[in-house]
């Protein structure tokens, strides 16, 4: 299957290369009509469509210089075309120079390089991940479709606006990816979506793509309800990040809130309001039990009255803050105290916020959500890598220690794997560190998508990743990671110099054959280096 998909991509690139001369000939022909004595509106519109198509698709297929030249021509030509006025002598001269640059870039041509793509994923992975792609450049539509399918999305592509409304009546995609410009007009895509939005009770999730990046195009996308806007050539990794946000594959853990309130009825009311929205809540009416509650329940937020029997809220907050592991827990006072001075004084002694009773249920819920989200964000910064949002080295090591203990208790196998991107220094040296960072993020995203929610994925450092697969034997882990390896090797990454592909190597070690965290890490690392020495783009087991 890998060779079949590679062949499809090679054919697409070959078709594009074969079409370039005809597109350039049509461009020159229409330019001749537009630059004549009388203004030819139809020729101008046709010219703009050709230039727009080259600007948006050229770099995708390896014609970076052609794409840049066409984009500059489009920016210069569009105002005159949309105004429908004849060109001045100065404008003709300037545009003629830009047309010459486009023709020259097409005549020189560019090396596309090897095209690689891995096997398609299993059909059941794409369940509930339908995307509509509306793009009038057929080859570009096929290219984007192949890339999105590689990430687990099912794509229905349309090369015209006609038929999209009928298709939406029969299916509910997680998103519509819509080009801005079509033969019907420079904002036809946005206008079509805006019309569809007016007919719907629930907004249609739309992501716009375009070779245009001007204010008018972006404003049209916003007014049509666009949730994101990606200039062409589209960075597929960023597009997938956006789509994943719409799909929300990984459901967040419920918020955990501890209520310390000596009035049981009020505590019950607060608890009910929070549980109604899916939060996990524990109530405590006697502050003496605070340390046991913190240990057993591990709350992310403590809501407490500032006036409690035998111990006020300020004192209780100080006791909580004495424990380093609870420093990230948010503490919010609930009280009838209306004095701003006293509220501020209380918050200086360990709390984060002050809510005045009585508080409406919806206000309590909103405040609780905001505080837990902030606490989670702070916690995430402590344990997660800033570039990929994966667990960092320390957090992975802690997870590995915990998994060894769990596996011993439950007598269950698990696998620890080390992954390293091949020749990554060459990527940075050739394409720049910004592109290298995007490659790292792409692999991080692929690992998160293809592995289970129960699996642990972390960035061990630099271009190295770590994966824990609970309940999995070594042979199965090799199979799972090798499929991901093949997919990653087939992905295409964009840079100013064109497109390229990268591979990774990996090593796996299984418990209980290696029954300590250091032993597993060392064994997986050695297996990784054997894979490197054996030629890279492969996996080895310890």
What does this structure look like?
There is one protein chain. By secondary structure, the protein is an alpha/beta fold. The protein has 4 domains: 2-108, Four Helix Bundle (Hemerythrin (Met), subunit A) (Up-down Bundle), CATH 1.20.120.160; 123-247, Rossmann fold, CATH 3.40.50; 256-382, Response regulator (Rossmann fold), CATH 3.40.50; 393-541, Alpha-Beta Plaits, CATH 3.30.70. Helix content is 52%, strand content 16%. It has 19 helices and 17 strands. The protein has helices at residues 2-34, 41-57, 64-83, 89-108, 138-150, 164-170, 188-198, 215-223, 236-247, 264-275, 290-297, 313-321, 340-347, 361-383, 393-410, 424-431, 433-450, 474-490, 517-533; strands spanning 130-134, 154-158, 175-179, 206-210, 226-231, 256-260, 280-284, 301-305, 330-335, 353-356, 414-421, 456-461, 464-470, 493-495, 498-500, 504-511, 539-541. Strands 2-1-3-4-5 form a 5-stranded parallel β-sheet, with helices on both faces. Strands 7-6-8-9-10 form a 5-stranded parallel β-sheet, sandwiched between helices. A hairpin with a 2-residue loop joins β14 (493-495) and β15. α1 runs antiparallel to α2, α2 (41-57) runs antiparallel to α3 (64-83) and α3 (64-83) packs antiparallel against α4 (89-108). Residues 111-127 have low confidence and may be disordered.
Number of helices: 19
CATH architecture of the largest domain: 2-Layer Sandwich
Mean pLDDT: 84
**Structural class by sheet pairing and helices:** alpha/beta
Distance between the termini: 29 Å
How many β-strand runs? 17
Stated plainly, the CATH topology of the largest domain is called Alpha-Beta Plaits
In helices, the fraction of residues equals 40-55%
Biggest sheet strand order reads 2-1-3-4-5
Number of domains: 4
Rounded Rg: 29 Å
Shape: globular
- For the report, how would you describe the main beta sheet? 5 strands, parallel
Name the CATH class of the largest domain: Alpha Beta
Low-confidence stretches: 111-127
How much β-strand is present in the residues? Answer: 15-25%
CATH homology-level superfamily of the largest domain: Reverse transcriptase/Diguanylate cyclase domain
């Amino acid at each position: 299957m890998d060779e079949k998909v590679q062949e499809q991509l090679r054919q697409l690139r070959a078709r594009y290369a074969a079409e370039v001369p005809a597109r350039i000939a049509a461009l020159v022909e229409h330019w001749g009509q537009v630059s004549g004595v009388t203004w030819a509106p139809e020729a101008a519109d046709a010219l703009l469509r050709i230039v727009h198509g080259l600007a948006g698709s050229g770099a995708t297929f390896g014609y970076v210089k052609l794409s840049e030249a066409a984009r500059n021509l489009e920016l210069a030509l569009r105002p005159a075309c949309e105004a429908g006025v004849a060109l001045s002598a100065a404008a003709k001269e300037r545009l003629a120079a830009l047309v010459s640059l486009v023709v020259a870039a097409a005549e020189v041509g560019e090396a596309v390089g090897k095209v690689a793509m891995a096997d398609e994923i299993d059909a059941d992975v794409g369940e509930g991940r339908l995307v509509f792609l509306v793009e009038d450049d057929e080859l570009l539509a096929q290219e984007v479709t192949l890339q999105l399918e590689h990430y687990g999305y099912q794509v229905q592509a349309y090369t015209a606006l006609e038929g999209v409304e009928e298709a939406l009546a029969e299916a509910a995609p997680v998103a519509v990816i819509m080009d801005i410009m079509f033969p019907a007009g420079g904002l036809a895509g946005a206008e079509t979506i805006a019309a569809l939005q007016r007919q719907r009770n629930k907004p249609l999730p739309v992501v716009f793509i375009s070779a245009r990046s001007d204010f008018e195009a972006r404003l049209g996308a916003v007014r049509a309800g666009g949730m994101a806007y990606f200039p062409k050539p589209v960075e597929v990794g960023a597009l997938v990040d956006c789509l994943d946000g719409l799909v929300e594959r990984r459901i967040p853990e419920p918020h955990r809130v501890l209520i310390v309130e000596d009035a049981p009825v009020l505590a019950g009311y607060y608890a009910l309001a929070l549980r109604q929205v899916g939060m996990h809540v524990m109530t405590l009416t006697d502050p003496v039990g605070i340390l046991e509650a913190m240990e057993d329940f591990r709350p992310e937020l403590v809501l407490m009255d500032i006036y409690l029997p035998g111990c006020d809220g300020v004192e209780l907050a100080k006791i909580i803050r004495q424990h380093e592991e609870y420093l990230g827990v948010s503490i919010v006072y609930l009280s009838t105290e209306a004095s701003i001075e006293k509220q501020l004084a209380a918050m200086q002694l360990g709390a984060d916020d002050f809510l005045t009773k009585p508080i409406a249920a919806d206000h309590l819920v909103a405040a609780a959500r905001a505080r837990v989200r902030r606490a989670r964000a702070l916690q995430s910064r402590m344990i997660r890598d800033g570039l990929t949002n994966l667990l960092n080295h320390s957090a992975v090591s802690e997870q590995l220690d915990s998994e060894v203990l769990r596996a011993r208790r439950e007598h269950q196998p698990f696998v620890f794997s080390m992954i390293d991107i091949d020749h990554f220094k060459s990527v940075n040296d050739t394409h720049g560190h910004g592109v290298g960072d995007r490659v790292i993020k792409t692999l991080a995203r692929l690992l998160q998508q293809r592995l289970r929610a129960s699996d642990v994925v972390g960035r061990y450092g630099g271009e190295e990743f770590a994966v824990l697969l609970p309940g999995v034997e070594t042979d199965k882990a090799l199979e799972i990671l090798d499929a991901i390896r093949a997919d990653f090797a087939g992905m295409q990454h964009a840079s100013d110099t064109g497109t390229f592909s990268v591979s990774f190597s990996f090593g796996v070690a299984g418990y209980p054959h290696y029954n300590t965290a250091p032993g597993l890490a060392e064994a997986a690392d050695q297996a990784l280096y054997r894979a490197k020495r054996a030629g890279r783009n492969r996996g080895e087991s310890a």
